[in-house]
Amino acid sequence: MKHLKPLNAKARRIDADMAAQEEDVVALQQAPRPHVPMGCSLVFSPGWEVDASGGTAGLCQPVERDIYDCYVTCFWPVQMADHVNYSADWASNCAAATKDWRSLDIVFP
Amino acid sequence: MTVLLDHRYRAGEMHRFDASGAEFVYLPAAGALFAFDEAIVAILTLVEQGVVVHSDLVKALSADGMTAADAEGLLREMRMVRLLEAENVVPQASIVDAPPADYPLQALVLNVTNQCNLACTYCYEFGADKISTQTGKPKYMTPETARTAVDFLLDSARDRKAVHVTFFGGETLMNFRLLKDTVEYANARAAETGRRCTYSLTTNATLLTDPIIDFLNDNAVGVTVSIDGGKESQDSRRIYKSGKGSYDVIEPRLKSLIAKHKTRAVTARVTLTAGNTDVVGIYRHLKDEIGFHEIGFAPVTTTDDGHDFGLNGDGMSDVLQGFHDLSEEWMQYALRGQMHGFSNVSETLSELVSGTNKSHPCGAGLGLLGVSPGGDLAPCHRFTDADEHVMGHIDTGIDQEKRTDFLTRGHVGSKYECTSCWARPLCAGGCHHEAFVRYNDTGHANLHYCDWIRTWTDRVLTIYGTIAVHNPEFLDRFADRKGLSS
Question: What pTM was estimated for this model as a whole?
């Protein structure tokens, strides 16, 4: 953290938790170094990812969490959280998908 | 058409304060304490005026010379600690966790007698607020009962490495023989399983003798003395049944106790009542003239029906002013790296250091239970011998149904008034016993002292911030303060 300074034990735990999230998942082109793990998509485009075999079984996240890109940008009526009628809050805790994708919840219609 | 979404934020739940020119925030949802910089001040200023949009905040920060990436990083930090939260997020209904059914016991308070040689006019065991029903019950605990209680404690503590026994009354030293027997028995029993038992007692000091003092020193028994101050304060309400004051009896005994008891701190516990609110004067006397290591103060427990000892508004303002002055002195000591004996600050500060966030106001019914002279279990020493609050017996174990009811009621999540209070992590609604006396429900929030708790917590936060700026290493001394056992 750059702007907040933890001053007690609980604050230090929050700090450690945030730090642990920084590099626990690394995209292919992302620092510290590019790497290609088995079974992952080649680009971070939530909603359009397939694994190395062309399916969704080998993705790091359940496919239900990978529909974010449909929700944010896509007009095509695929199966995704409906941000017009029913699930307007679905992504309210996810300001930047590449960092906050853990905050996306699963929607059960 | 592509629709890009933006996010709207509001300020999260926080208590801001400043100290020594620096800005701090206490986050009640976690019990976390942070210092923060000017950039965060700017965002909080914007968000405190109303809901703001993510991209506007980024623009505002960029206009102040921050790169877009840094601005995103800053907003992310604020979101992660919940200084900012999404505008349309609603708090979940309070969660009242089911009490743990098998919480290992850590401490027992043995009411070794319900008899007392004093008749302090404000005593909750004695006056109009009495809830105990002692008729027909043993007045003194027998050695057999105490030994069974020790066995019960060691069994229920399971794999804890250390347990604690507090001796309480009545006047504890009216049953010193039992105390001595129990310490010897518990030491032996604990040693059999490679464990340790520590001890403390509360006394009015009238019955202290040299052999007793030697015993307390040899066994490292922590001693808390109930005392109200100098002669005038002490003799106005801490009196014998004849009406005679107790100061002249205890003064030489206290000096002897403090001179000879070197293994544990000797603490004074002062009850503040109408007419006895000179906190600084009492402290000076007990610290400088008598020599106590630590002195703690608490306003008297009372119903609101006009006892002559209850503290009214003026009395409470005097007490708060006294607490403020004495805590200032505490802080000056801390800045010089010295410990000061005003334990109300030390206690609150050590809870802030660890970031305590309580589900219950204290350990009553969880790791701690009270035992009546007859062996009945109660949530704590203040409930012993009160039929309505019996929670099992040392022979038969804990009455889980009663315990669950007590802990569910007492959970901070079930106290509606506490849900919006920033001081709830430390207070959790306050004393179960005081709530029962005042509101006839152990699970009622103690609303009559909310302002007091918030004012006091804010005061100690300010002290915390000041020390964090000027002498941060001093705070490390409080990290293990409550580390009773593993």
Answer: 0.85
